[in-house]
Each structure stands twice: as C-alpha cells, then as structure tokens.
Design a protein that fits this description.
10 strands; mainly beta; 121 residues; six-stranded mixed sheet; four-stranded antiparallel sheet
C-alpha cells in the first residue's frame, strides 16, 4: 500500500522560501517516478514536477521552473521540495505522489495527505 507523508508547509511572505518533505513507504521508492502536485481551494489539481527514477532527470512545469527544486534520497525513502521566490498564487495544498504526470493525475490514492502552503503578506 502506497503511503506518503508530507510535512514542512506553513505561512510565508511573498518572496520567501519553504522546504517540503515527503516520506514514502509501501513500495520500492528507488524505482519509482515521483511527482509533486498542488491544489488550491476550488481549483483543479496542478501537476508541478516529476523526478524520474531511472534517469534521475526532473521535468518541471513552467509555473515553478527556476523557483522550485526537487531532491530525493533513495536511502531514506524521502523526497524534498525547495520552494523559493514564493508568490501568493503558490498558495495551495501540496502533495507528493507516486508516478509521473498521467498516473498521478488519475490516481488520487497515490497521493499523500498533503501539507498546506500559504503565501501572504
């Protein structure tokens, strides 16, 4: 059973930074593509990035490219998301998810419970 637990959310002023963490269990993390997704109230989920297990390559959505950086530690089954230059429009609940774009956008059961990020002055 896929289990993902996010942490690190909070409130930050525009231009600030946050670092989110995700701890994975229930599957072979080192072999899994992993993504971050966010959802703002009243809006559809928004895919942010996928880090690919085989290549180590990461693809970012244009909305976060250059501001967000993902890292993973396969020895600890963890993935982190460093978020810099945060904007009010980044306010959302952030989820780590197992799989790449197509899979995570169709399998809500592959998401964690999420962590809230609020960017406000």
């Amino acid at each position: 059973q896929v289990q993902l637990v996010e942490s690190g959310g909070g409130m930050v002023q525009p231009g600030g930074s946050l670092r989110l963490s995700c701890v994975a269990s229930g599957f072979t993390f080192s072999g899994a593509d992993m993504s971050w997704v966010r959802q703002a109230p009243g809006k559809e989920p928004e895919w942010l990035l996928t880090t690919y297990a085989n290549s180590g390559h990461t693809v970012y959505d244009f909305s976060v490219r250059g501001r967000f950086t993902v890292s993973r530690d396969n020895s600890k089954n963890t993935m982190s998301l460093q978020m810099n230059s945060l904007k009010p429009e980044d306010t959302a609940r952030y989820y780590c998810a197992r799989g790449a774009f197509k899979e995570v956008m169709s399998r809500r059961d592959y998401w964690g419970q999420g962590t809230q990020v609020t960017v406000s002055s």
